[in-house]
Amino acid sequence: MKHLKELEDIQTKKDHLQKLVSHQRNSIEGLEKSLNVASSNTSLLQQQQLQLLESVQNLVSLISQGKVLKKEEWLFQDCMDILQSGFNLSGVYTLHINNVTESKKVIVGFKFFYYWFCGCGLFGGCGLVVM
Fold first, then answer.
1. Is the N or C terminus of the chain more exposed, i.e. has fewer CB atoms within 10 Å?
2. Rounded to the nearest 5°, which phi and psi values hold at 86?
3. Coil, strand or helix: which one is 114?
């Protein structure tokens, strides 16, 4: 009888330890997945950093050579491209849209930091209003 009770206690402890090991295994698998995602994100950030560094080096080179483009010479693909390029002055910008032979002029109105308007005209599509 005493041996049977000890055997039951040992079996209970074994079951408890197996549950703990299973829980730890699941935790480790979750951590491995998180590590893989973080590693992938780090690689992407490194690529973006290299692209940004290359862009900065190109800009420094252009400026040192006196080849700074005027607003009219910049190549924008869409209205968001204008905003993301850092321009914040209202005016007329030129869009060079992929698969469209003719450039489109757009009127961009910047007002405060978060409001701006961009539109093409006459059947040309385009158009973005952010408020």
1. N
2. 105, -5
3. coil
Specify the pTM.
Answer: 0.41
The token pair at 62 is 């252009």
Which of 117, 39, 40, 33 is closest to 82 using CA atoms? 117
DSSP states along 72-104: GG--BSSHHHHHHTT--S-EEEEE--TT-SS-E
Region of poorest pLDDT, from 29-38, 57-66, 70-79? 70-79
Q: Which of 50, 19, 15 is nearest to 42 (CA)?
A: 50
Query: pLDDT per residue over 88-126, tens digit each?
Result: 666 777 777 777 677 766 666 655 444 445 655 444 444
Q: Buried (b) or exposed (e) across 70-97, using 16+ Cβ within 10 A?
A: eeeeeebebbebbbeeebeeeeebebeb
